[in-house]
Amino acid sequence: MTVPLQAEALDISFKLVPAIIVFLMMASFLVIGYVFKVADTEGMWVAGRGIGNIENGMAIGANWMSAASYLGLAGLVALSGFYGLAFIVGWTTGYFILLIFLAAQMRRFGKYTAPDFVGDRFNSPTARALAAFTTLLIAYVYSVGQARGMGLVGQYVFGLEIIPMIIVMMTITVGYLALSGMLGATKNMAVQYTILIVAFLAGVYVVGFSQGYSTVLPQIEYGALIADLGREFSAPFVNQPFYLWIATAFSLIVGTCGLPHVLVRFYTVRSERVARWSCVWGLFFILLLYWASPAMAAFGVDLFEATTGASAYAAEGGMSGAEGDVIVVLAAQFANLPTWFVGLVAAGAMAAAIATTAGLFITASSAVAHDIYTELINPDATQRQQVLIGRATIIGMGALVTVTAFNPPALIGELVAYAFSLAGVVLFPMFFLGLWWENTNRQGALAGMVLGLLIWITSIINSVLPNYIGALGAATGESGALVPIYAQYVPPIGAALVGTPVVFIVTIAVSLATPEPPLETKKMVRQCHSPEPMGQQETAADVVGDSTSGGTPADD
């Protein structure tokens, strides 16, 4: 096994006060999970559909702002310069599409999971299985980055090697998730968001003020550093084609709208109005961190150079990828702030990673227990059986993610971007067309999803697997890809720029060439756009099924 790259500049030693902070934080998560533990599927998958808009907005923010946002975003800007801004643009713009086109409509459709929507909307067990498989794949790839972030932060706090830290942190995370389900996870996410945003903003303000970079608005004042850091921030961008910037931003935008653990948040609220407002609140809570991330990157790069005497530009042997991944903690450490304060900043990263892992593992467990086991294998499964299968999935997924995180294939932010690219290519077209074009049918959805999976998987085989498989690596030569032209236009991190339009076209073309979906399915789609309010536990299928006049409110 290859030992993962260490963050050499990080002060890896046991620190009592930060350790106490992290211990109390993790203990509180376990307590909250126990208090809100669930025994039924309604609480396990959708938190009883009773979450309010601000609480759900905080859960969206915590769910969203993973280690890739808290640690990885600043790291990407620090290591990749202006190219890193593509991640900020992509990870925020997608929420406007969610707000306008998907949030309320998904709530009105009103199922349990993202594969639930695909299976019922397109009347296809095969489509449900493909969506469930994609959900598992997204959760797996996305979670590896979170485990990596937990390990790096754990190193700083507890002074152990990264592998045992990954094992310990993932064990605690899996333990509370298997106990609590979506209800407990949502309550925890509100707490986790509070911890992470306070820790991050405190770090930005204190580092900026103590080092003379900024006063009251570090989010703007860091611009004074750009002249001094111009080379580090622009040189990496020179080596990245402009096409990659566009492809990355586009993939993150559409990927945002296809992530199952984000869309399921709209199933947990009381009504479609709450779904819209929770999306607005979620975007606001995300903005608080994203606006400040470039400032922390600039502070960290300048302090890295001043402290180590080396250029932060990685191509010149400066900052490593592991050090970029913890630039937020390094900035506080290099600013000579009290150890307990740096520990607080590190604890925020831990909370961010755990919150996102919670959402991912819950969606993965629901995909296996609800969409695969109950809907496809054992329709007579009891709620107890479903919950047990769900908890077993969380444990199994946790073990697989833990092992992979020992030697991840990319930086935290890049790992997460792979998952976004997959969601944007495979699931986003199904959600958008499924809700906005009633003639999208089973054949079109199957053709589009299979094609999307092929596009993404071939991009991973072409550009990522050669780093792990010697025979493939030898075949790539200096290009690093089996087919360089394919890697150039369909990179794993930005495969959606080509893949998503192609999937849209194929899905529409096949739907037009084959029979239209049943009338009842069309009525469900219309109901998703009806102005008539629905009950808290009511779904579009319920309304259509209860209709005795042959129409629905949306038909009038």
From TrEMBL:
The gene is aplD. InterPro entries: Na/Glc_symporter_sf, Na/solute_symporter, Sodium:Solute_Symporter. It is found in: Membrane. This is Cation acetate symporter. It comes from the Archaea. It is a multi-pass membrane protein. GO terms for molecular function: transmembrane transporter activity. Residues 524-556 are annotated as: Disordered.
